[in-house]
Amino acid sequence: MRRTVYNEDHEAFRETIRAFIEAEVVPVYDEWFAAGQAPRDFYYKLAELGIFGIEVPEEYGGAGEESFKFEAVLYEETARAGISFGGSGVHVLLCLPYLKAYATEEQKKRWLPDFVSGKSMYAIAMTEPGTGSDLAGMKTTAKLSEDGTHYVLNGAKTFITGGVHADKVIVCARTDAPKPDDRRHGISLLVVDTKSEGYSVGRKLDKLGLKVSDTAELAFVDVKVPVEDLLGEENKGFSYLGQNLPQERLGIAVGAYAQAAAAVRFAQQYTQDRTVFGKTVASFQNTKFELAACKAEVDAAEAVCDRAIEALDAGELTPAEAASAKLFCTEVAHRVIDRCLQLHGGYGFMNEYPIARLYTDNRVNRIYGGTSEVMKSIIAKSMGL
Ligand SMILES: Cc1cc2nc3c(=O)[nH]c(=O)nc-3n(C[C@H](O)[C@H](O)[C@H](O)COP(=O)(O)OP(=O)(O)OC[C@H]3O[C@@H](n4cnc5c(N)ncnc54)[C@H](O)[C@@H]3O)c2cc1C
Fold first, then answer.
1. Which of 367, 376, 379, when mutated, tests ligand 1's pocket best, judged by the most ligand atoms within 8 Å of its CB?
2. For the chain, what percent of residues have pLDDT higher than 70?
3. Where does the Acyl-CoA dehydrogenase/oxidase N-terminal domain start and stop, copy by copy (predicted)?
């Protein structure tokens, strides 16, 4: 089916990104994979390309684009190539919407130019060792000092993408106790400078997939955060998280759909080249049926993504619809990539083949940004169940 979601500008951007990936990422990707992260300098190259500023208003150095579509093209192209841009994905997808929506004019002037230039890389820290899905259970605290000039931050976070390289982290912390009838009350968002005294980066975590993305533990011991760095209103952080998670979830859905599409392409190429029993693997009826079934699932996921992207741009994508898109696309990708890996035989298990990396990179899509079970809970609630 012809896609109508993108126009000529998006397709021109796609060509630029594709050429950039071929020239700047593919030749060095094995080194990044072995090192377990993309080099910090690479983020300056992304900044030079204008990636970080696409959706930043022009007065702060960005391109002022309101649409999510350029970002979606980016996810499609990185997935298509079987690569990732490291921990920098959260900089734009997760962190920028908070800065745009809740930062004051003074904060935007202070933060956004460095955000665009890559001088300040952002991460977001919600998850703690003791709580992930149940964010209202977080224990990290930020107590206002007696003179009211700063918060004193104490606690620990884990699984923080971009946590090693980050210059600023949007930390979710308790500034007040939960109310008996509202567990979500009392959470605030603070933009924490990672050079602050008492702030430390713990282990860079060794993961099953997403090898080039730095995922870290963070610890805070009496970190002083100026009150000027509170993002939005005190104690309202939970509702801010709820408002921004749909975009994050759609980004994951688009990335997963594109990984599945890439897997079908890789498997088709591979099975057409590989000969067994004197025939190409692609000539077996089983291979044709497998690839055809996978293609049908990818087409369905593409249609879901395209409708959701339009809905997000129109300001109409509900949390339940975003959860539905994430659940569907990530589950499709899981099935499709596994079947495509199977068609590669033993070579599919080798990291030098992109299908192996897609397999391990994709696995986390059903976990982060909210697990598939949490997505089902959100959808069920919207059905009145
Ligand atoms: C690679 C990676 C990168 C990440 N990056 C970030 C990041 O940048 N910032 C950040 O803050 N977090 C990040 N996370 C954390 C991620 O969002 C959490 O891992 C995720 O939300 C799940 O939380 P948890 O790991 O504590 O699992 P748990 O909440 O302990 O869940 C364990 C199991 O219980 C199930 N479960 C939980 N609640 C329910 C329920 N109500 N009904 C039924 N089943 C339920 C879950 O679905 C899961 O199967 C990242 C995680 C990973 C793996």
1. 367
2. 100
3. 7-119
